Amino acid sequence: MSGKFAFRPSEIPEVLIVEPKLFGDHRGFFSETYSRDGFRAAGIGMEFVQDNHSLSQQAGTLRGLHFQSPPFAQDKLVRCVRGSILDVAVDIRKGSPTFGRHVAVELSQANWRQLLVPKGFAHGFLTLEPASEVVYKVSAPYSAAHDLGVAFDDPSIGIAWPTPADQLILSDKDRRQPLLADLPAHFDFR
Q1: Is residue 146 packed enough to be buried (19+ CB in 10 Å), middle (13-18) or exposed (0-12)?
Q2: What residues are labeled active site?
Q3: How far apart are CA 158 and CA 135, in angstroms?
Q4: Cα–Cα distance between 38 and 35 in angstroms, integer?
C-alpha cells in the first residue's frame, strides 16, 4: 500500500493491479484514481499525457490487442468506470522470459481496480456487460503511423475470452491483426 493506492503484481511482474482507496458515505463516494506523487512513492515514474474514454454499448465487444511502436509507445493505466471488462496485457518484448504470455484481470465499476500496462505490452479488453465505459491514461499521444496490434485469437497466446469467437463484436482492423510470430520486434527486453 502506498498512501491512497495498493499496487499488486500480476502473473507478469511489470503489469500491476492498482487498487485506489474508495471513501464512501451516505452521499456516495470519493476516490483519488491517480496521483503522480502517489505513484512515484511506489517507484512508478510514468508520465501520462492523455486520457481516453470509450463506451461499448454491447457485452461481447472486444477492443484490441493494440499497442503503439516507438517512439510513440504507450504506458497505460486502465479502469472501468461503468459495467465490467476483462482487461488483457500481452508481453510482446522479444527476449523477455514472459514473451507471449498474458495477464487477464476483471476491471469493473464494482471492484474499482485498475491495470497498469507498461510499454512493450499489447493491450485489449472485452466488455462483460452492456454499456461498459473504460477510461485510461496513456504516456504518449496517439499516432496513427505507430498504431499496431496482435491477433486477439492467436493460439500461441491462448487468451480464454469468455465470449465465443463467433459472437464477438470486433472492428475490421481487429479482425486483421497479425499473429505474434509474424510481428516484427518493436520492443526488445534487453
Answers
A1: middle
A2: 66, 136
A3: 26
A4: 5
| Tens-level pLDDT at each residue, the chain (190 residues) | 446 899 999 999 999 999 999 999 999 999 999 999 999 999 999 999 999 999 999 999 999 999 999 999 999 999 999 999 999 999 999 999 999 999 999 999 999 999 999 999 999 999 999 999 999 999 999 999 999 999 999 999 999 999 999 999 999 999 999 999 999 999 998 7
Task: Judge contact between 66 and 122, C-beta under 8 A.
Answer: yes
Beta strand 114-117 with 76-82 is antiparallel
Cell of 120: 512493450
Burial 88-118 (b: 16+ CB within 10 A, else e): bbbbbbeebebebebbbbbbbeeebbbbbbb
Helices (H), the chain: 36-41, 172-175
Which helix (H) or strand (E) is 96 found in, with range?
none
Return d(Cα 23, Cα 20) in angstroms, integer: 10
CA atoms 51, 100, 105, 124: torsion sign: positive
* Number of residues assigned to the chain: 190
Residues 27, 33: Cα–Cα separation, whole Å: 19
- Tell me which residue of 25, 24, 38 sits closest to 114, measured CA to CA: 38
- Residue in the structure block whose three cell numbers are 500481452: 90
